Amino acid sequence: MTLLGRSLFALALLLAGSPAAFAADVKAGDLVITQPWSRATPGGAKTGAGYLTIENKGSAPDRLVAVSGDVAGRIEVHEMAVNNGVMTMRPLEKGLVIEPGKTVALAPGGYHLMLMELKSPLKQGDKLPVTLEFEKAGKVAVTLVVQAVGAKGPGGEGGSMMKQHDHSGMKM
User: Fold this and answer.
1) What's the predicted TM-score (pTM) here?
2) Domain 24-165 superfamily per CATH
């Protein structure tokens, strides 16, 4: 095999194992949902979190009002914030608005999907189907790809931020 052939083969193997290689954009009405992912949890954990990005390419707002999936007893849209050095987390009772022409990132340390009453630990490489429900776009199926414990994003990088914003050990 030539050097170019070996390089292309190595690249193909790398991409095949990369979550970004199979995480396709999902379009629903005016919304584009990208990079759905989660983090692995330790055994016995009852909670986890899901992350993704939602872009509204339309001219009217839409709202993420509910989330469901077999992975957990319930899934809520949450907001995390630090106020005066105190971390607070709360469910968004009225959902999450995605304004027209804007992009909302659900990411560690901010908005996220709170997976409660996990049926089993989340393991790196797992694919978790969930259904997002929007006021206008309706129900949208996406798959959260589970990254390593401590991952900062869908590329699977680890980091110390996990200790600060990881929900996997929380008891509800």
Assistant:
1) 0.77
2) PCu(A)C copper chaperone (2.60.40.1890)
